[in-house]
Amino acid sequence: MFAAALRRASSLSLRTQSLCANPQIQSHRLFARPVAARMSSEERAAQAAAAQADDDAPTIFDKIIAKQIKSDIIYEDDQCLALRDIQPQARARARMAAPVHFLVIPKHRDGLTRLSRAEERHKALLGHLLFVAQLVAKQEGLQPGFRVVINDGPQGCQSVYHLHLHIMGGRQLSWPPG
Ligand code: DGP
């Protein structure tokens, strides 16, 4: 009798687990958790950053450009610099961890807090940033391929409001991203 009760309880638990894994059931109000609780720390940081984004406020990248804080700079010219991303491990949770992950950032933000602020006058700089992205990717041994990502705004998971390109590679990347 005890064994039968155990079997019934275990089968119920398995059925509950499979129901919870069903995306249609997950959207049911009984299973729904508050939006904030479902967010990753990167998503929460992006929401907080967007709420505080101020076109004139300096960002951490201004300190890096001014060499006021230490960073691993792997390329620099008069318009931009490339540096290793500080959080490659955190990206593992977002399934974005890559053995090579660097950022290309313009030295003068010039209103480019995010890509969607781009104007005609930024075209040459935007082209230059892409050109440098592939140049440094080759320098980093990413000849087999790499990915360039620009996060824009809260839904794009942007956390630093100074335009930057993420360049990732060094392993087979999957598609689509999350
Ligand atoms: P995004 O979420 O797209 O705005 O990316 C911002 C990136 O900036 C994120 O990948 C981590 C990186 N980052 C933030 N602070 C620092 C820092 O102090 N040094 C370096 N190297 N990277 C940083």
Structure description:
- By secondary structure, this protein is α+β, with helices and mostly antiparallel strands.
- It has two domains: 2-32; 54-169, HIT family, subunit A, CATH 3.30.428.
- Strands 1-2-3-5-4 form a five-stranded antiparallel β-sheet, covered by helices on one side.
- It has seven helices and five strands, in the order αααααββαβαββ.
- 2'-deoxyguanosine-5'-monophosphate (DGP) binds at residues 60, 64, 71, 83-87, 151, 157-160.
- A motif (Histidine triad motif) lies at residues 162-166.
Helical residue percent? 25-40%
Total domains, how many? 2
CATH architecture of the largest domain: 2-Layer Sandwich
Largest sheet, spatial ordering of strands: 1-2-3-5-4
What is the number of beta strands? 5
Strand content: 5-15%
Ions, cofactors, ligands: which are bound?
Answer: 2'-deoxyguanosine-5'-monophosphate
Order of helices and strands: HHHHHEEHEHEE
Structural class: alpha+beta
Q: Quick one: biggest sheet?
A: 5 strands, antiparallel
**What coarse outline follows from CA principal-axis ratios?**
globular
Q: Fill in the CATH topology of the largest domain.
A: HIT family, subunit A
Mean pLDDT: 81
CATH class of the largest domain: Alpha Beta
Spans with pLDDT under 50 lasting ≥5 residues? 1-32
By CATH's scheme, which homologous superfamily of the largest domain applies? HIT-like
Radius of gyration based on Cα positions: 22 Å
DSSP helix count?
7
Intertermini distance: 47 Å
Organism: Raphidocelis subcapitata
Domain HIT: 60-178
Protein name: 14 kDa zinc-binding protein
Pfam families: HIT
